[in-house]
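Practice problem 4.
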């Protein structure tokens, strides 16, 4: 074993031994080149080989053994020389080191301590073969997974911005990274991409249009795919910061995305106003309520009531980002349908206050019957529960009285059932059959 020297004498001896090992291994390498060059690679792959760098470098260059030379550099941690060699040969059309794959494999095993080298020598691959270059930072290899993701992201932003979305999707979906910075950044990139695609498709695509509004995610081509990805991510991710992102989703465009952000901020009325008066999608509005309703949450227990309010008391057109010529109108029919279908989740008193004063009783007759029926059932159940609890209480009290009615008389003659000694004033235990024993027996 090669142990580190501890004294000056040991150090000199160690240096002499190292010199001898260098001579032996370097000579062995030269012999292998003459006799059987297939053995050169295994020799250089030994972690403790002592081949002299300068001497073996010269010999391998003369023999044009470039794969082995890369191995020598790697073993001696002379990574810059190895990468320079890979770069030169990677540009060639022939040879075992041609192309970018050898460089990718080399960079993937350098690890975070040599991050600057990885960044420097990944540039030419990212520019020439972006998809393959991204593998330097995403392949399932321990050294790759340990790279600092924030620095990798900054590098890709500078060198290959087209790959940033793919990289963020990889670390969030496959690596399950929960850093809000990455989630926020991915949403921002989705939005920027969608806005550029909207401009390409139509000059007025970002303007509100209720007559020919196409549901988000169903647009043709790349635009539809990116909007669907953004909507899915906004719905499923729990780690982005909606309050920071909402300012970049201004009123008047990307309505579906804005509604999801508003919902995450518990601004339910604004979100439902978009579904009911901009998108005019009652099913989507009810689905929103279903996802966000929470009886125990102060913010979400009245979400169905918010929907009812949006139908009966629509907001101003300016607050929705739609044309001022289009004035949102109350939708009493939709409001009554919400009352009928979701009466269990709506505060009856508050709902009745929202209803127009002139609405005929016949219109809400079914709703009132359902509420009264529900209240009757609830009252009956509570009465039954009360009766059952009272019965259980009486039974327990009877058991208590029965237990307390038993007594034992300890006299001077009473003896322990185990040791047969008198109980007297000692602690004792009594069995159901009346037998008494010393407590310690």
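Answer key:
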């Amino acid at each position: 074993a090669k142990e580190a020297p501890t004294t000056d004498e040991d150090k000199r001896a160690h240096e002499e031994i190292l010199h001898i090992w260098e001579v032996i291994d370097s000579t062995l390498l030269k012999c292998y080149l003459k006799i059987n060059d297939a053995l050169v690679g295994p020799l250089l792959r030994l972690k403790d080989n002592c081949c002299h760098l300068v001497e073996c470098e010269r010999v391998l260059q003369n023999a044009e053994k470039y794969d082995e030379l890369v191995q020598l550099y790697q073993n001696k941690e002379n990574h810059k020389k190895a990468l320079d060699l890979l770069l030169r040969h990677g540009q060639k059309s022939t040879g075992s080191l041609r192309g970018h794959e050898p460089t990718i494999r080399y960079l993937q095993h350098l690890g975070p301590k040599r991050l600057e080298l990885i960044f420097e020598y990944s540039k030419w691959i990212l520019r020439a073969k972006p998809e393959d270059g991204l593998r330097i930072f995403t392949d399932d290899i321990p050294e790759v997974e340990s790279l600092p993701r924030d620095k990798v992201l900054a590098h890709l932003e500078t060198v290959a911005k087209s790959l940033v979305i793919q990289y963020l999707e990889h670390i969030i979906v496959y690596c399950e990274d929960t850093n809000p910075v990455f989630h926020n950044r991915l949403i921002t990139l989705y939005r920027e991409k969608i806005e550029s695609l909207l401009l390409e498709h139509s000059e007025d695509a970002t303007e509100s249009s209720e007559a020919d509004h196409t549901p988000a995610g169903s647009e043709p081509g790349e635009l539809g795919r990116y909007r669907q990805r953004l909507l899915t991510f906004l719905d499923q991710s729990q780690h982005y910061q909606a309050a920071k992102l909402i300012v970049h989703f201004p009123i008047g465009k990307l309505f579906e995305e804005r509604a999801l952000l508003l919902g995450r901020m518990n601004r339910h009325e604004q979100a439902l106003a978009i579904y009911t008066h901009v998108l005019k999608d009652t099913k989507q509005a009810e689905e929103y309520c279903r996802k966000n309703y929470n009886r125990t949450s102060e913010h979400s227990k009245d979400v169905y009531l918010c929907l009812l309010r949006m139908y009966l008391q629509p907001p101003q057109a300016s607050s929705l980002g739609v044309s001022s010529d289009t004035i949102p109108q109350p939708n009493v029919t939709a409001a009554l349908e919400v009352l009928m279908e979701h009466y269990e989740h709506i505060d009856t008193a508050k709902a009745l206050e929202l209803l127009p004063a002139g609405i005929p009783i016949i219109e809400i007759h079914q709703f009132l019957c359902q509420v009264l029926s529900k209240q009757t059932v609830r009252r009956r159940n509570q009465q039954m529960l009360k009766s059952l609890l009272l019965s259980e209480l009486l039974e327990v009290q009877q058991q208590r009285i029965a237990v307390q009615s038993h007594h034992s008389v300890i006299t001077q003659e009473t003896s322990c059932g185990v040791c047969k000694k008198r109980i007297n004033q000692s602690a004792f235990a009594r069995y159901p059959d009346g037998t008494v024993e010393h407590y310690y027996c």
